[in-house]
Amino acid sequence: MILQKELPDNGEFVIVKMTKIMPHGAYCRLVEYNLDAYLPIAEVASGWIKNIHEFIKEGQQEVAKVIFVDQAKRAVDVSLKKATTKDKKTKIDDYNFEKRSQGIFTKAIETSGKATEADAIRAEISRTIPTYTELVNDIFEGKDPLASFRDNAFKQALYDLVFKTIKPKSYTVAYNMEMRSTDPKYGARKIKEMLAQVESSGVEVLYLGAPHYKLISTDSSYPKAEAKIKDSERLLESLDKQHAFHREMVKAQ
């Protein structure tokens, strides 16, 4: 975060580093908060745990879920078993990108010669933008999150670094499709025309040998790529009503 919170929120996923293993639990460091937390043995893993040392070791770094926060005592409990594999991957990706975005921000401070004003700049930006990730993503997507920001030298340095450093992500979704026509005379031509309309919508069509085809969609996010495939499927369904076709689509592995 641009201005770090003192404590994590209940339910938040955090990076933890094991510091002291005991028979009935472990103490760990919340890497992002520079704060100690407690991991009860019941939250280490599902099922019976006879020896906690078989599951965690000192110095081990993991993704955990915050399950208890005492604001007054600054006490935090975390759980390893409540963090799924997907949760862990998402958190690690988010954490790494936040650190990378922070590095871009720091370099922009240095490049623009604003080291003595760094704290004031962070404070001003944090009023509307909580994380370095959000700041960098907004800039990269063509928005102007610092439109009213007073320091043009820092703003220009930051924007230049974002576009120089960040490369667009792409996600690909593919479906295998079997498509046949009951029209022996014009069926092949009609299929070719239908697939041409699919390609004009931004979905690649690969011919695998009649009646097999592959539809491939690439976009900046997985949901967007998947949505383009679904749109092409709806397009084919609308065209199916006009002609006699048999079609099946199965997601490619």
Textual characterization of the structure:
The protein has 253 residues and is of the alpha+beta class. The protein has three domains: 13-83, Nucleic acid-binding proteins (OB fold (Dihydrolipoamide Acetyltransferase, E2P), Beta Barrel), CATH 2.40.50; 86-165; 171-251, EIF_2_alpha (Alpha-Beta Plaits, 2-Layer Sandwich). Helix content is 36%, strand content 27%. Strands 3-2-1-4-5 form a five-stranded antiparallel beta sheet, covered by helices on one side. A four-stranded antiparallel beta sheet has the order 7-8-6-9. Helix 1 crosses helix 3, helix 1 (85-111) crosses helix 4 (152-165) and helix 5 (187-200) runs antiparallel to helix 6 (222-240). It is flat, with a radius of gyration of 26 Å.
Low-confidence regions: none
End-to-end Cα distance, whole Å, is: 37 Å
Q: Indicate the CATH class of the largest domain.
A: Alpha Beta
Strand content: 25-35%
CATH architecture of the largest domain: 2-Layer Sandwich
Number of strands: 9
Which bin fits the share of residues in helices? 25-40%
Q: What is the tally of helical segments?
A: 6
Radius of gyration from the CA trace? 26 Å
Full CATH superfamily name of the largest domain: EIF_2_alpha
